[in-house]
Amino acid sequence: MMKKIWVMTAVAAAVMALAGCNENTGKAASGAQAPAKADVKTEAQAPAKADAKAPAAAEEKSADTQKAGLTGDDAVAYAVGQSLGSYIEKTNRQQEEFGLKLDPAKVIDGFTDGMTGKDKLQNVDKQKLLMDFDAKVKAKAEEAEQKKAAEEIAKGNKFLEENAKKEGVQTTESGLQYKVIEPAKDANAPKPDKDSVVTVFYKGTLLDGKVFDQNIGQDPVSFPLNAVIPGWSEGVSLMQKGSKYRFWIPSKLGYGDRPVGQIPANSVLVFDVELVNIKTAAEAKAEEEKAAAEQKKQEEEQKAAAEKAKADEQKAAAAQAKSDEKKADAKPAETKPVKVEDASGSVPADKKVK
To answer: What is the pLDDT along the chain (354 residues), one digit of tens a residue?
Structure first.
């Protein structure tokens, strides 16, 4: 792929250089990449927590710039220049792979003139000059990619040609190769069709033995055979339930000339597969609908329970409020004085209220 030259502000270019923002810098996809047809998306990462030590880190960085003899805007100016220089050097090194290299001294000379207002090429269309060089690099890059693709295809074809001669290896009309590692215990065990949903254990490797995907030692996975790469769809359709096969899938039945995750373009893929279970499309759909109905029922029951609990809580709160209001409004009972007299009609001293 091509590494293009961009016209940008110095600070923006420096930030992009530090961030590694090259338009063709690819990132390897994580997670399972085969045998699905579609590229698997990685899950979004949770936002990072704020670093409580950030102020301390900032102070350390400030101390580092002072040690380097650079402070304030001088440190920023140096960072701009160093980042641009590093970015250009990396790009230059990549272009050198195609036999094209710019003289670093001339790059520095042009940078210096640009910073001081000089221009040895002021009467030259520099944009066209750069675009022509960009086209030259692109052509060289495409040539290198085509050469690499041809080499990979030739390597794969040679392997398949030799592998086909090995004992137990069979080749289908499409070019798919397979070997029965362990036949089904039941000779009458069923086989899936192209619309079946299969449950499997599998391991995928490249010709060098590098594992790029597997679920061995985990739970088996299920998927419809019409949603996988052609080599998988054809190969698993040959299997009986309970059997184990090994497949060698030519790139034309795999991912072709596009790289996917850890799988280079034009790769022959090797898969060990154990067919655990088979469901017809109708059975799978019925199970899906049943599971969805059960899920909906659980959600409705939970919602009803939550609403009842809320209603009971409100009812209890209302009853309590009413009880409290009744108590507040109640008047204290009226008390009447008790007259205690002796035979003389006088209140004895010990009965007088003190």
So the answer is: 333 433 334 444 444 544 554 444 334 333 343 366 644 333 333 334 444 454 555 555 566 766 677 777 888 888 888 888 888 888 888 888 878 888 888 888 888 888 888 888 888 888 898 898 888 888 988 888 888 889 999 999 999 999 999 999 999 999 999 999 999 999 999 999 988 999 999 999 999 999 999 998 899 999 999 999 999 999 999 999 999 999 999 999 999 988 898 999 999 999 999 999 999 777 666 766 677 777 888 888 888 888 888 888 888 888 888 888 777 777 665 666 655 555 566 655 555 555
Q: Which residue has the tokens 């059997």?
A: 243
Considering the domain architecture, whether residues 140 and 75 belong to the same structural domain is answered as: yes
Indicate if 229 and 205 belong to the same structural domain.
Answer: yes
Q: Which of 159, 177, 202 is the last residue of a domain?
A: 159
Separation between Cα atoms, residue 347 and residue 344, nearest integer Å: 9
CA distances to 216, 217, 270, 274, 323 from 220, in Å: 8, 9, 19, 9, 60
Domain check: are 213 and 256 in the same one? yes
Structural domains in the chain (count): 2
Peptide bond into 35 cis (omega under 30): yes
Domain contains 333: no
Task: Output the pTM of the full model.
Answer: 0.57
Domain residues for the domain of 116 are 10-22+53-159
Calculate helix-pair angle for 10-19, 72-96, nearest 10 degrees: 60
229 lies in the same domain as 272: yes
CATH code at position 258: 3.10.50.40
